[in-house]
UniProtKB/TrEMBL annotation:
Pfam families to which the protein is assigned, alphabetical: F-box
Domain annotation F-box: ranges: 19-69
Top-level taxon in the UniProt lineage: Eukaryota
The protein's name in its UniProt record: F-box domain-containing protein
């Protein structure tokens, strides 16, 4: 006969009951529960067990998890969803680099770059698009393209590359005196003046008769 010290604890009984209840739920009820969750909620649910993680691989969750591939054509002038990682990424534009610090999830208190998250390899919008025109408020859009669908990684890499480029000569001549540098040393970051604090993305709207998406940044803070 087992001694009292060897008997399962109330906590162990409760855990066993939870597992049995979870495993006894019919699949369709699981799908109804998961249908109510957003991007962050689905990722948290996937950590519960292998069974739930397998459910989340179902194509019905592709839109919420930014797995939807680009269609041949998007409804013109419609809005598309922007990936949460892009909204959680703080881009500090300095010299020739874009420092992409990000914090994803309410339980994430440490600092990471956006490229440290697996989500960086998910599509940048849902549905995805093959051509994205980026408007960061300097009077000139620049394109990001991928016929298989623009992903977060591609967009952020292109964003960093863009800020490392030089503006047109006529723009550089207009402000180079303000920084006491030669026109050939003026950067796009300088064009923003003091208002270069990143505040996220305002919208993603389908243009060019459904062939491209314009991603527009919010105005900058100083």
């Amino acid at each position: 006969m087992a001694s009292p010290s060897q008997s399962p604890s109330p906590q162990a009984h409760a855990a066993d009951d939870t597992v049995r209840a979870r495993d006894s739920l019919p699949d369709e009820l699981w799908f109804q529960i998961l249908d109510e969750l957003d991007y962050e909620g689905l990722h948290k649910a996937a950590r519960l067990c292998k069974k739930v993680k397998a459910f989340i691989q179902d194509e019905r969750f592709d839109d919420v998890l930014f797995r939807t591939k680009p269609p041949k054509k998007l409804p013109a002038n419609s809005r598309v969803e922007i990936h949460p990682l892009l909204q959680a990424t703080y881009c500090v534009f300095t010299k020739k680099d874009a420092l992409t610090w990000a914090s994803m999830g309410s339980d994430d208190s440490s600092e990471h770059t956006a490229f440290e998250y697996p989500a960086v390899d998910e599509f940048a919008t849902v549905p995805a698009c093959g051509i994205m025109n980026i408007d960061v408020g300097i009077g000139k859009k620049f394109p990001v393209t991928d016929r298989n669908g623009v992903k977060v990684r591609r967009l952020l890499q292109r964003l960093g590359h863009f800020w490392g480029q030089k503006p047109p000569a006529w723009m550089a001549y207009r402000i180079h005196g303000e920084y006491d540098v030669g026109p050939d040393e003026v950067t796009w970051q300088m064009m923003l003046g003091d208002r270069c604090g990143w505040t996220g993305w305002a919208s993603a709207v389908v243009e060019n008769e459904g062939k491209a998406v314009t991603l527009t940044a919010d105005g900058y803070d100083s």
